[in-house]
Amino acid sequence: MLWFSFVFILMAGYYILRPVRAAMASDWTDTEISQLWTIQLFLSTAVVAVYGLACSRVRFRLLVPAVYIFFALTFCGFYLGSGAITDRVLLDKGFYLWVSLFSLFHVSVFWSFMADTYTKEQSRRVFAFIAAGASAGAATGPLLVTQVVGEIGTDNLMLLAAAMLLIAIPVALWLQRLKRVDLHNEAVSADLSAAKIGGNPLAGFREFFTNPYLLAIGAFILLYTSIGSFVYFQQTELLREFGREERTEILAGLAFVVNMLTFGLGLFATSRIVTRFGMPTTLALVPVFICAGLLILAFAPILTVLLALQVARQAGNYGVTRPAREMLFTNVDRETRFKAKPVIDVAVYRGGDAATAWAYSGLTDGLGLGLAAMAAIGAGIAAVWSTAGVYLGRVFGRTAGSDAAGDDANGVVPQRQAAT
After folding, report:
1. pLDDT, tens digit, 9 for 90 and up, residues 315-328
2. DSSP H or E stretch at residue 51
């Protein structure tokens, strides 16, 4: 129950901050947002490196509470700054970047903490319950925002999130005590050096650029981020006419619906879609829906259509496309996975965000294209994305099929058959 409470508090705190961050973007031009995303790319890469150094120098049981205390204090600082500074443009942009960094760390630190507490066998038993706590927190945070933002304003939400992070600290310390006293897992430690296999920091890039299968995954991710960026920029455009508190409330409601749908898809639909229709259809399903949605938006560029598209895109990506995408990495060996996956998850993903942002701002701020034209361009990208999904799913199927045939020839019963 403590693990449920811990991850519930962390996810609720993050999802209180997320709509506040997103609401700020409508105060800036597309070019300004592009600049922030470029800074975010380099800043995230640098801070990840610093965190990796801290993991090797600081005892992990001290590192976990230190990270959450640090972020809580910084959010208190932003709250104090919001009341003391008249011209808040730079402060708001700093907060926009800082929440992005927090989103990168809080989940990573949590799962490392879990790995540092339980054995592999124990983790299998408690994983589902802990994941339910994360889903509950992700839904409760934005729901709380919709109820209180009109009364307390967006600035006080920063203080509320900081308070929730501080509340989580005693829970973390108690969990560390349970590890020693009740679980007797003193010998368990998180493997924070797994990504250093091979010792060469450029090995992941070499693996990525010399492996056609990994390049195909990278292309799929790049198209995925491009569509996300296109829809995000269209969202900021249509929300400009609202005040910041109204935007925060709208975006919090959107996050609540998305998280509820994601939970339902993950629980009832994703595995059935993959099993019944196969990976090509699963990977192409969401892109096809997004393509259709963007075409509708091109003819009816209004907020209602965009919000419906965002719900379908985010819930579909989190509930269907993301799990299927992670399955693709089961077709490569462990060493390749640890070397190349960070390249795809950080360099390709964040780099795709930054590149697409500049392309979008060039077409809008530079050439003056409107929302309808940009939605039509986005529909074309989504069509290419769906084609890439079909191709990648077929490659995955052929590789998995050859592996299963090899196991069969060697007298190994494939897992799917063994389960029946």
Report:
1. 888 888 887 887 88
2. helix 30-57
- H-only helix segments in 244-321: 244-264, 270-299, 303-316
Tokens of 412: 């190994």
The Cα–Cα gap between 402 and 203 comes to 27
User: 388 to each of 216, 239, 296, 385, how far by Cα in Å?
Assistant: 8, 32, 22, 5
- Tell me the CA end-to-end span of the chain in Å, nearest whole number: 33
226 vs 418, which has greater pLDDT?
226
**Same fold for the domain at 1-189 and the one at 200-403?**
yes
The dihedral over CA atoms of 289, 292, 298, 300, expressed in degrees to the nearest 10, equals: -90
Burial (CB count <10 Å: 0-12, 13-18, 19+), residue 345: exposed
Question: Is pLDDT at 271 greater than 50 in this prediction?
Answer: yes
pLDDT for residue 412 is more than 50 = no
Structure-token pair, residue 345: 């998850």
Quick: pLDDT tens for 200-213.
Answer: 556 667 788 888 88
* pTM score of the predicted model: 0.78
Structural domain boundaries of the chain? 1-189, 200-403
Task: Return the pLDDT at 383.
Answer: 95
CA dihedral over 89, 94, 97, 98, signed as positive or negative: negative
Q: Who has greater pLDDT, 336 or 66?
A: 66
288's CB contacts (< 8 A; 6+ apart) are: 382, 386
Reported as a single tens digit per residue, the pLDDT across 91-110 is 999 999 999 888 877 776 77
- Give the tens place of pLDDT for each residue, 290-320: 999 999 999 998 899 999 999 989 888 888 8
What the block records as the tokens of 410 is 């060697």
Q: Are 9 and 164 in contact (CB under 8 A)?
A: yes
Residues with Cβ within 8 Å of 323's Cβ and at least 6 positions away in sequence, in order, are: 266, 270
Q: Please give the CATH topology (third level) of the domain spanning 200-403.
A: Growth Hormone; Chain: A; (1.20.1250)
CATH code for the part of the protein at 1-189: 1.20.1250.20
| Inter-CA distances, 59 with 116, 165, 252, 330, Å | 11, 20, 37, 32
Measure the CA–CA gap between 26 and 90, rounded to whole angstroms. Answer: 15
Of 178 and 185, more confident? 178
Give backbone dihedrals phi and psi of 241, rounded to 5 degrees, phi first: -75, -10
CB of 274 within 8 A of CB of 282?
Answer: yes
DSSP category for residue 320: I
Q: Token pair for residue 312?
A: 């379908």
